[in-house]
Amino acid sequence: MSTGWLVGSVVIAVIVAPLIGGLLRGIDRKLTAHMQGRIGPPIIQNFYDLIKLFGKKPMVAGKPQLVFAWGYLFLIITAVVFFALRQDLLVVLFILGFAGVCLVLGALSVKSPYSQLGGHRELLQMLAYEPILLLAVIPIALKTGGFPITNIFEYGQPLLPNLWLTFIALVIVLDIVMKKSPFDISSSEHAHQEIVRGVLTEYSGPYLAIIELAHWYELVLLLAILGLFWIVGSLWWLSILTPLAIWFILLITDNICTRLTWSWMVKFAWGVGISLIALNILVVNLGWM
Amino acid sequence: MLPEPIHLKLELEDETVVGVTPIIGYIYRGIEKAGELNPFRNNVFLVERICGICSFTHALCYCEAVEKLMQVEVPPRARFIRLCWSELSRIHSHLLWLGLFADAMGFESLFMQCWRAREIILDISEMTAGHRIIQSTSIIGGIRRDIDKEMAKEVEHKLSDFKELMDNTVSPTVYNDPTIKRRTVGKGMLSKEQANLLGAVGPILRGSGVPLDIRQTGYAAYKETGFEPIVESDGDCYARTIVRLREIYQSRELILKALSLMPEGDISVTVRGNPPEGEMIHRAEQPRGEVVYYIKGNGTRNLDRLRVRTPTFANIPPLLTMLPGCELADVPVITLSIDPCIACTER
Amino acid sequence: MSILTKSRIKSPWLLHYDCGGCNGCDIEVLAALTPIYDIERFGIVNIGNPKHADVLLVTGPVNHRNKRVLRNLYEQMPEPKLVIAVGTCACTGGIFYNCPNTLGGIDKIIPVDVYIPGCAVRPEAIIDAVVIALGKLKEYKG
Amino acid sequence: MPWMLPTIWKNLFSRPVTRRYPFKDIREPFSGYRGKLHFDMEKCNLCSACAQLCPSNAIVVDKEAKTLKYNPFACIYCATCVEACPRKAITMDTHYSPPATVKSEETCRP
Amino acid sequence: MVAILLALAIGFPILTGVICLGIKNHKARAGVVSLTTLVLIVTSILFLRQGSFPYSPPPTWDWVILVLDYVILAYFLFVAIRDFIQRGMSRHNVLAIILTLASGIPLAVFEFSKAGYLPLEAEPTLYIDHLSIVMCLIISIIGSLICVYAIRYMKDHEEHLHVEKTNQPRFFFFMLIFLGAMNGLVFSNNLLWLAFFWEMTTLCCYALIRHDETPIAITNAFRALWMCLIGGVGFTLAIIFAWNSPLHTLSLMTIIESGAVACPVLLLPLALLCLAGFTKSAQVPIQGWLLGAMVAPTPVSALLHSSTMVNAGVYLLLRIAPGFQGTNLSTFVAVYGGTVFLVTSILAISQSEGKRVLAYSTIGNLGLIILCAGINTPLAIACGIMLIIFHAISKGLLFLCAGAIESHIWSRNIEDMEGLAARLPILAGITIAGMLSMLVAPFGVLITKWGAMEAASGIGVWSTLVVILLMAGSGATTVFWTKWAGRLLCHSPLPGPRKPEPIIPLYHGVLILLIACAVVFSILITPIYNGVVAPALAEAGYGVAFTTGHWFLKSPIGIFAAWPIFVVVALALIIPSLRIRTKPEESQAAYMCGENVEMGADEFVAVADERTPLKTGGFYVETALGEKNLNRFVIPIGIVFLIVLFAISVFPLP
Predict the structure, then answer these.
(1) Subunit contact C78:A56, Cβ cutoff 8 A
(2) What is the largest CA-CA distance in chain D?
């Protein structure tokens, strides 16, 4: 690939990803409203929210939280850039992990019971999904012969037929990261429950906007990782449709179940998610798939 | 999403609750004192606003207490219509609660469906009483508005719409959904003995297997319509949920029965004079349980004393025995399972 | 109208605080969120946290216990912010005018932008009030 | 979980039940709704029966100045005054009182 | 020249240690310690310039070592028996006696039955290659910095404890000879010499743990003694089996070069050496001694965990890894290391004492190095070596931070460290940076973890298990580090100016130096790889692990671009933390449902309008993941692992 092409894809990724993310969040709210028999906000509502938040007077509860908010945003953008540059997938996920740590530290840096609880729950969420996310890279690498994303492109055939177990495990991860029921334990879409939006409690105005923006990037990045499973071959268009379909299924799941507790989440994620991937790695290692 | 402030000072260890201190007083207005300053007829509107959710039952209980004290015989038609409004407010309160309960578990779409069904009840209320939630129709000596034949037909029609909506959306989910069960079954246990000992009332008591409902005493027109309390024996949050859900259906049946049995006649009698010297206690079943009114007249137009014992107040000790040892995530669920009404508690 | 002003008008987040009401207005505030009224159409979200909120909806006549809480919540909202007094008792104390522990109207504690009369208010009235309040944002500078 | 599915699926593909207030699909209030108060001052003789019975002190009659002051922001819309008025001078609209940015009293003179 | 270098590296610290024993003046002792450290650092750098070489001292030295080895064992016997008499029988002193005898008597029988050969020699006695040089650099530089730090720390420590007669001469005596012994250990090729230095580190460790002479310190010292002596027994048996094998040698090089594949009899001595390594590195099920060692003054912990003692174990494993390449033992070691990593990372979550968290983290990271040794591919070994370097820096830093914090708050409990970021911003900042250096990408520890993950993915069927252990362990690691960092950061906004942090040059200087090392070395990871790790790999007979270009590390299956991430981190975290100034009018107290009292007070209004202090705390999951609960499983699992270790070494399957 030429340097120009790479630079171009980076620029596109950095500019387009939040647009897609914001739009998806808007469609998410619209669809959820329709599922509940409501009309719901306009699709571009989240952009209004973001601009409004940027326009509010800053209010802070301590310097560290601001530093970590910036850290969260920049690191996620870096992860997106690394992804666009087709770097090592494991490294992309490590950067994403660092970003997650920043978010938690930002929440933990304020002496507020809600923020603290939210931070700790976010940490437990990371405990639940990080190993799955990292492990999911292994079968991909075993199949394509290496960890860089370039290898997936060069592999020449879609991964999903062989790695659908891993794919299902990644869907669990996506559900946790999107904070949808039954996994919305560290904050909830509507902020009036036991921890008042948890990690976000103490952020306000522009800094809340930064975190929101970072969430959009994160959502798009994870969907893009799901898209990798179809990216090559004649069915490449499925790499756009499949993540969107999965995303839609998660929206429905969000609307048909309650929030469950963190202990259940960790057990479920480790039990089901890790076993799925373990099975997949084993099967690939034994050469059965 | 509890719309009212109650401050539970929780001590947590990790996410397990080890200590609970309820801190109240945020909504204390001094209504009982104001009840002594107002003329006794105006108190009907004041006690209705002790709580906007079960406001009709407050008014009903107050009116019946005064009527008993003044030995006024209320026309039977008024008693039947009072029953209708009382049950309407029970349905709307239970649905409101079910919605909030679902939301406390993060089940937003169930919340929306509950409140959507509730709007039908509010429309009935608005049509018959002139306001969505605060009916202001019970007065000393009867009621202010009649439900005529045409309106009764409309009410029946709306109630059948309501049943259809409930049968299709809310009930199957609440009865069957595994995630709801996971969050409620076995949470906030209260045994029959404890419930009796701690003086629980209403659906909490009945959820623990005690068949006690003040409607059995037959006030308003309950004697004529007949009444059997609904009981579940498990004593957990799920049992309380089922009690309330079944009561919604039961209330609907009661309204239909009352509308069909309703005799013709006046809807109120004129009450002259002031309450005589003397005391009176009257009880009624609110959506949340038993409410007790104590009044003391002194022959003037002001009461000597107005005292209300509300159901949530009785249910707080059981709540405090349920909470320790639960997870923080279960605190809203368990707290809501007693359907706390802080405005009632603090007045 | 600048894009920022437009965004502000399109995205008012509510904080709802009950400082002594009877629940009547409070449940109507919630009812406004539900399918029949659906104020999320206007981008309104019930946010439950003063640090995120733009509009403070207050119900109830304010008593001596919670006036401090009310002032704290108001101060924790970042500018620009609006206050709506929901219901008769939040406006003037209403029927609680002679209750010993009420102050009678939240404007004794914090500045109020819009008053909604009614006991209890209708969800439609809440929608009207938010529209009036947002009109005030158009003039907001700073 | 699956028990909620039919509901949301049906909702997703049918028209929302929302009343699009204030634009369209507005349901007219029921005829008995207790809304705004109107004082017909031609019928009023300042007997102050309404003011005496008002539970929230929203009506004040000043016989000296010959005025009736009504505060819609203190009124609880209970219709006691409507029933109490011996001359039927007070009527109720089916529309609620509108919100306002300032609290204003109505001063009526016969 | 080389003899002088060796004398400076091994002999000089021992000499100055003995001198310290006689110095009563604090300033003079500080001077001697500083001089020693300076000499050690220069020497280690000269070693790096010298490159690898063999060296055999005159045979007289073999006699000296022989005698001193028995002297040390006799001393162990003496202290254990004295304790038995003074404090009565306990599990620890009895086991110490039994194990001293168990390692001493077979050795004596073996050596003196070969009286004709005495002293047993191996050619060369000392062998210095790049792996040794890496270790020497770590020992000399980080160990020295810790000694310098200890000069101030011990003063504070004794003032805090109101010690009447100073014990510092003895303390520095052991600290310095510890460094000498470690240098000797990593240079030794003759197994007897190795065993001698091995026992010497055990001696130093024992003496330093019991430094404060409190009953608990003495008990823990004896626990450390007998647990390490298990390794001593392993060493004795390994020597006997190696000598009785067809190779008939005590030269470690010869054993490794022959390898267990060619000579399956060697599997048993290699497994015994692994056992010795496991005990030294405090792996499950004998992790107890390292946790108990936390009672010692903090510089001792720092020394044990970063540059000496535990590193000896993993050094030995990396050293002998080529010997068991391609055997089941190798797979076993990988699975064992991974299990230890996972188990200790989970155990660390429930710990509320800072130093115990650090201890579990150390054991976990050593498990990771052992895992690398077990994977036994060039990539894995390279990662193992780099992990030793980066772990030593970060862990030394964190222990010293814990010590510096301790000197302010006199507590080791994480809960007591709440809000230190407000009171001691520099110290807390360095500590958090240190934690991040253990935890997140671009720092060296994570680069090596990345390498280990990639290496672990390619070892066939067992890789499934190994990668799962590795990834799940990483997840748990995130939890305990982040949680602790969060406690340090947690504070309410403070109105008004703050009291400036007192700067203590010896503390802050050393800490800043170490954090600078962690950052600079991580950025310079490619030169480090090319400079020391690649030659070490080549000398051990491994292929190439990484290629480097644009200062990126490229393995055959992945790329790690470290410095661009550093640029981002600088942009994202450092610049905002320096540039952002919060205006007082923007400060706002935390949301407490509107019940806060004024800004800066951690209080809220509760029952009866009383001001109630706000308390927050960390998350420990004590009931589910506490030691009590988990150790019921962990220790049996460890014992089963050790049984399997012997089973596969005695009955090697094809």
Answers:
(1) yes
(2) 71
